[in-house]
Design brief:
The chain has 319 residues and is mainly beta. The protein has one helix at 4-28, and strands spanning 38-44, 50-55, 61-65, 70-74, 80-85, 89-95, 99-105, 119-125, 130-135, 142-149, 152-157, 162-167, 172-178, 195-201, 204-209, 214-220, 226-235, 242-244, 250-253, 259-262, 268-272, 279-284, 292-297, 309-315. 8% of the residues lie in helices and 46% in strands.
Length: 319
């Protein structure tokens, strides 16, 4: 074959040109971010309302199921069961030295009943058996809880503009903070809670207000008292519960289809834009890491949906 070196040169040159063109096109092409995938860990029939959760050190997840008056448990192997049957409708649960403290209502908001005079705390032993209860007569609607110290739990009141301080040894309830920033907007067309989720952050207590769409910060003294009025972190729109990541960004549920994030720079963006199905609460799963989260929802029940309530898993990149 004549002039083989010419053909080899043409082929090599063409290959180099195509390689360079592909590289240029890949650089010019828009980068499409992949949405994290949600994985279903457990499913409950339509009509269940998974409201709040606590991940245990042994890997179990305890979940309050509001209309059924039960605490459900998701085991590390993926099996689910009813952990506790209760005498009232549970909003949140938190571990204590003796077992668990549950914030609950004696009547059901979902049934259209007036719950404001029925607020109470249930005490469970470590096996989930209800062993005692005590009322919170001044409370209007108990919601999220967080531990302040070994014997003290802070509880959000979604209607009373109050965060209550509960002593788990003396079984007493007293106001820890009262401020209008914790209350609801006037004349809201549907029930949206005021103070809702509570978490301890680097600078003190962080509070979500669903009605006002805000995240607030309250400084806490060394003696556990509140130092000054709540300060605005950001207006984030619809928010229910949340989790503060290691980087300082905040993941939050919306009780809608989206899971969102507030960056340390103040930007709000969707992490999941569809599929959360009325997500109510989330936490790292298992504890001690910052990339895999368990999320619970009500199957859009509150908004008139008819989907099953689910427990979801979400894996994110480290920050």
């Amino acid at each position: 074959m004549p002039f083989p070196f010419i053909r080899r040169s043409l082929v090599a040159g063409l290959a180099l040109a195509l390689t360079m063109l592909a590289a240029l096109l890949s650089m010019a092409a828009p980068v499409v971010a992949q949405m994290p995938e949600l994985r279903i860990l457990a499913s409950y029939p339509h009509g269940n309302f998974l409201e709040n959760l606590e991940v245990q050190s042994d890997g179990r997840v305890l979940i309050t199921n509001y209309p059924t008056k039960t605490i459900e448990v998701l085991h590390p192997d993926g099996t689910v069961a009813t952990f506790a049957e209760l005498s009232a409708y549970p909003l949140s649960i938190i571990s204590t030295a003796e077992g668990y403290l549950v914030a609950a209502s004696g009547k059901s908001l979902l049934a259209g009943e007036d719950v404001t005079g029925t607020q109470q705390f249930l005490l469970l032993d470590k096996s989930g058996t209800e062993i005692d209860k005590f009322s919170a007569p001044q409370a209007l609607y108990l919601n999220g809880m967080v531990r302040l110290d070994e014997d003290t739990v802070l509880v959000a009141d979604s209607l009373a503009e109050t965060i209550w301080e509960v002593n788990t040894s003396s079984l007493t309830v007293a106001p820890w903070m009262v401020d209008s920033a914790l209350g609801v907007l006037p004349d809201q067309p549907i029930f949206l809670p005021g103070a809702n989720g509570l978490k301890m952050g680097a600078d003190g207590l962080v509070v979500s207000n669903t009605s006002k769409g805000t995240l607030l910060s309250i400084k806490v003294g060394q003696d556990g008292t509140a130092l000054g009025a709540p300060q605005m972190i950001a207006h984030v729109g619809r928010i229910d519960d949340f989790w503060i990541r290691d980087s300082g960004s905040i993941l939050f549920t919306t009780h809608s289809d989206e899971l969102r994030s507030l960056s340390v720079d103040g930007d709000v963006e969707d992490v999941i834009s569809i599929g959360c199905d009325g997500c109510t609460a989330l936490a790292p799963f298992p504890l001690g890491q910052d990339t895999t989260f368990v999320i619970i929802n009500d199957g859009n029940l509150y908004e008139g949906g008819d989907d099953p309530a689910t427990v979801l898993s979400l894996t994110l990149a480290a920050q």
